[in-house]
Amino acid sequence: MDYIWRRLRHIFQRDPKTRLIFDLNQEAHFALQHLAEEETRSESEIAGDLLADTLARLQADVQYWTSAC
Fold first, then answer.
1. pLDDT tens digit sequence for 2-29
2. According to the model, what pLDDT value does residue 69 have?
3. Who contacts 3 (Cβ-Cβ below 8 Å, separation ≥6)?
4. CA-based Rg of the chain, rounded to a whole angstrom?
5. I need a surface site. Which of 16, 39, 63, 68 has the fewest CB within 10 A?
6. Interacting residues of 9 by C-beta distance below 8 A, sequence separation 6+
């Protein structure tokens, strides 16, 4: 897995924007692994909860901005 991250980092280093996105994704991946190690739930269960929370926040933001217009 480390080899894959190194290869992807090499590819994404060419553009600062994609580099930032890659770094954030990598940090999120490692944070998710850490959470799964601390809890009894699996990575996929935690990721599902995080995704559901993120989508709920996004939906609330969209509703706010569409009602404000």
1. 777 677 667 767 777 777 777 777 777 7
2. 60
3. none
4. 16
5. 68
6. 19, 22, 26
Compute the residue count for the chain.
69
Decide which of 68 and 31 is more confident: 31
Instruction: Answer whether 19's CB lies under 8 Å from 12's CB.
Output: yes
CA torsion, ordered 40, 45, 50, 55, to nearest 10 deg: -160
Distance from C-alpha of 69 to C-alpha of 10, rounded to nearest angstrom: 42
Query: DSSP assignment, residue 40?
Result: S
Which residues, other chains included, contact 8 with Cβ-Cβ below 8 Å and sequence gap of 6+? 22
Pinpoint the alpha helices (H) of 1-69.
2-12, 16-38, 43-68
